[in-house]
């Protein structure tokens, strides 16, 4: 920029003198030159505001002098006022089409504003006038590069490769720092990538300079929409449409936001009313509205998971909660819901993993207790399940436990399987022993309490390693002679009890 914005402090000797307004008014010309020289002095000191003032005075004195407009254009460029600078640069080449620096400055302004094609034409014109001009050569390459970045970004946006678009726009903005179009595209892609603070920052910067910029208003709304602040988002979309009624993206986003809000609210109402089937359908419809709305869709998946849990479709509930945390890995509610489903389906290792994730994120007493409960159930699950062995519920009464033992003990007693293969005999003997173990623990209130609480039964002399199932069997059926097995044929037995 420094080379393009360098002032014409000394004009070439061969350059034609600009024609003054009045041919015989030398005093006016000299006064204008004095203002220009003062402008040059301030420019050299980087006091661009004062330089601008003096160049303006020079232009007022001699409005047909190309170099005065060129100098003021250079000053405006240094102040970042590229649109105004563009007007001065264009006026300078209208007054003198052979003014190389004028064409360079016009091209530089076009490029800074993102008009790379127009910039290329200006740099080509400068090269026609001076084919060895290295600045024109370099700037032409820069403008060509920006055109290429635009082309790549357009294709990548269609492919939803938003990271690549952000990369291309960052490169393009190095040459076109004042291009709102590039900034908006970058901000939109940042929003689509979930980088909302960055996207909002870019959009806010533009709105500070131009509060009516419909694209920036749209991006602000988009960030709020994707952060699940749907009502506020709609306000920005409506404002953008006021500024630009034909803004297609704002129109679509506004329509989606309203539809999503309505479906979600209807689903919530159906859930509260206990109409779980309808709630499921409404949440499913809402999920189909906008796949890009990560946060809202995460909540919808979690809500649908809750519905599935109510419908006792626990595997579906787990799948929905998994989809929720895939979209938002900080979503505590989804982890808690999935963990409970894992507990209900006795997948204790998975439940512990989810509760650990929750507790690491939010170290509350409630979350700590949930984790401890899951760890206890996991520990218990790795022991023999005596309730399952007897085929009774955990709330079974003493009589139900006795009846279950009677049935299972007789079913698996070794004498009943004396004619079976060695492999079957071994398996039935193992089951017979387990049935005896289960009855020993569950029929004793103290041992049952310790077992239910997850305590080790091997502690305090309750080692099951030396357990004899036959002694339990004999005691239960009244001792020797209290029962007998009589074979009535292969696989059929009669039982007699004393």
Q: Looking at this structure, what is the CATH superfamily of one domain? A: Tetratricopeptide repeat domain
For the biggest β-sheet, the strand order reads: 1-2
Secondary-structure element order, as H and E? HHHHHHHHHHHHHHHHHHHHHHHHEE
Per CATH, the architecture of one domain is: Alpha Horseshoe
Q: Give the helix/strand class.
A: mainly alpha
What share of the residues lie within helices? over 70%
What is the makeup of the main sheet?
2 strands, antiparallel
- By CATH reckoning, the class of one domain would read Mainly Alpha
What oligomeric state do the depicted chains represent? single chain
Average pLDDT works out at 88
Q: From the alpha carbons, calculate the radius of gyration and give it in angstroms.
A: 42 Å
Distance between the termini: 110 Å
CATH topology of one domain: Serine Threonine Protein Phosphatase 5, Tetratricopeptide repeat
Shape: rod-shaped
Number of strands: 2
Instruction: Please mark out the parts with pLDDT under 50 across 5 or more consecutive residues, or reply none.
Output: 1-5, 9-17, 20-24, 487-498
What percent strand?
Answer: under 5%
Fold and architecture overview:
It holds the Pfam family DnaJ. This is DnaJ homolog subfamily C member 7. TPR repeats lie at residues 32-65, 214-247, 260-293, 332-365. With 498 residues, this protein is mostly helical. Among the domains are: 26-149, Tetratricopeptide repeat domain (Serine Threonine Protein Phosphatase 5, Tetratricopeptide repeat, Alpha Horseshoe); 258-381, Tetratricopeptide repeat domain (Serine Threonine Protein Phosphatase 5, Tetratricopeptide repeat, Alpha Horseshoe), CATH 1.25.40; 405-497, no CATH class. It has 24 helices and two strands. Strand 1 (483-489) and strand 2 form a beta hairpin. The chain is rod-shaped and about 140 Å long. The chain starts with 25 loop residues before the first helix and ends with a strand. 39% of the residues are buried. Mean pLDDT is 88; it is low at 1-5, 9-17, 20-24 and 487-498.
